[in-house]
Design a protein that fits this description.
The structure is a homodimer of 131-residue chains. By secondary structure, chain A is mainly α. Chain A is built from 5 helices and 2 strands. Chain A is globular. Chain A starts with 12 loop residues before the first helix and ends in an 8-residue tail after the last helix. Chain A binds a DNA duplex (30 and 30 nucleotides) through α3.
DNA sequence: CACCTGTTATAACATATATATAACAGGTGG
DNA sequence: CCACCTGTTATATATATGTTATAACAGGTG
């Protein structure tokens, strides 16, 4: 999967990496069990340091999106999860986003439509146009 | 409005401040035109530095949630906004959240229900229980 | 044994965050 | 005019975080 880093972004590189890999899993560009490039290889491809990639992998491992096999290296893992715990994890961030949306005058219907649209893109699989 | 800062959080203090004020506006605990505590007063109340509060106010001003009157100081401003621009601003963050939700096994219906529930809390006005 | 994997350690540097102290321009009220 | 409030700006300092660099280690592969 192609990783693109915005070096002028205020978002940390390791954070962008995490997000793009999670985005990749959600859009089926990365599938369960798929091997990820090694920390050194990924670092070379992107043009960043090995430790920055390692930090991203470590975080993804802690969050349960990646596992490590001594033999193969890091690979995607979307193991079964606790539904209520998942909702609790997502809920806090969602509250912040919805608060901002509501302050900007967006209605509940606006946000429901947005969620519906984005989720359809994910379920629809790989998109060929702009991200 | 009561502001509570988690000093052990990995989230920056000025960021927590911004989020809580936006949350406050969304939940009608802060209303349009309402005067905010001065940077010095707010800093004293919370127990942080004046500049940290000033940074939060500056960001909120840039995002259009706060305006400054030479005479009164800072006050809440939820002026009319461009709907499409608002959606565009919220969309990127929403993609990240929904990707994570989907990876954790949450369905579109789960997320629609979550949005529905949170938005109802906001529209319902002030809540007396937790958060 | 050479080569790959993730992991750890250490150092160095840049940037971000938070604090402290001070000053300034503009507005308010005595 | 004068004291007092407002946000704003400047400067310095301390700490935390992010990123890079170099090096080494244990474990697995061929």
């Amino acid at each position: 999967m192609l990783i693109e880093i915005d070096f002028s972004s205020d978002e940390a590189i390791y954070q962008q990496l995490c997000n793009q890999i999670i985005l990749g899993i959600a859009t089926s560009r990365l599938t369960d069990g798929e091997v990820l490039p090694s920390v050194r290889q990924m670092a070379d491809e992107i043009g960043i340091n090995m430790h920055t990639v390692n930090k991203a992998y470590t975080i993804l491992r802690q969050e349960g999106f990646v596992k490590v096999d001594r033999r193969r290296g890091a690979f995607v893992s979307v193991g079964d999860r606790n539904r209520e715990r998942a909702i609790r994890l997502v809920e806090k961030d969602m509250r912040v986003i919805l608060a901002e949306a509501r302050c900007r005058g967006l209605s509940k219907q606006d946000m429901l439509a947005l969620v519906d649209r984005i989720y359809d893109e994910y379920d629809g699989g790989i998109r060929t146009d702009d991200q």
